[in-house]
Amino acid sequence: MIPWVLLGSAKVPGDDGELRLYQRGSEFSIRIGQYELMNSRVHGSEDALGLLAAQRVRARARVLVGGLGMGFTTAALLKELGPGGEVIVAELVPEVVAWNRGPLGEVAGYPINDTRVQVREGDVAAILRSEINAWDAILLDVDNGPAGMTAKANDWLYTLEGLRASHQALRSGGMLAIWSSGDDASFTKRMKQAGFATEKIPVRGRGAAGGPRYLIWAGTRS
Predict the structure, then answer these.
(1) At residue 144, does pLDDT exceed 70?
(2) Are strands 35-39 and 27-32 parallel, antiparallel or unpaired?
(3) What does pTM read for this prediction?
């Protein structure tokens, strides 16, 4: 079997965690500690997150994507978004942006090079706190669920205060969508308390081909 090769590592700002990028043949993996956060062969659920947003917003929508990852969510969003759409990608770890401009970018087709995309290196929470009634959709894929795995500071995003900030940041009818590796009944309750009409959408890691089961929380600001 072809061995994994470490291509790079990066400290997570404000946290003790370290991201590591590996390659094995044409396959890429991003890991933190003993956990694999994402793999380029299993991106059906990330595709579903981007497609879900694109199907529910207007063609000229303004969309905030929290977490660049391997670029699959942004790529899926761009395929359906109109030429007048605008996508802001907030990525906390600068090296992840560099990886997507370098060896990792090809797997998703270099979506951050699209003229509709602007990358902001920083915390997505800072954007949520500062921009009110600004977004048609907010997509969060910064952890493995409603808890800060990548950076403990991300915990705030999933608190009632953080969800209310997302609610205020959305325009009327806007959607908050959050990727998760599993269910959490208490988080569904917080979504509703924050004012969202909430639904849970099951997705698969390999799309129509199956694969691991994941979940997207979709909340609409009515």
Answers:
(1) no
(2) antiparallel
(3) 0.93
